[in-house]
Amino acid sequence: MKKIDKKVAENYFRARNTAIIIYLIIWFIVSYGVVLLAEPLSNISFMGMPLHYFMGAQGAIVVFIILLFVNAVVSDKIDQRFGIDDKMNETISAGKHLDH
């Protein structure tokens, strides 16, 4: 097993945690921010519907799906930046099973 420098591991998890915090902030704004601001947003229409209604009905789900894809792409880029290779890990661990 390859040992990882502690500083590199800390930087890796800091980058991953920063991305997760950003996703949670976006999730909170889309989920609760739109509901809390429903009254002022009722004057804004999107696709013929009031914005708060659209976000509650479809917009939040669309944003969450987009966040999933963005998370996958950003996570892969972070892994590449820190030299984590999934194919190499599969090759190293092939045939090894843990008995619990």
TrEMBL record:
Q: Cross-referenced InterPro entries, in alphabetical order?
A: Na_symporter_ssu (IPR019886)
Q: Which UniProt keywords apply?
A: Membrane, Transmembrane, Transmembrane helix
Domain annotation Sodium symporter small subunit: ranges: 10-85
Superkingdom field: Bacteria
Coiled-coil annotated residue ranges, if any: none
Parts of the chain that traverse the membrane: 20-38, 50-74
Asked whether the keyword Membrane is assigned, the reply is yes
Name this polypeptide is given: DUF4212 domain-containing protein
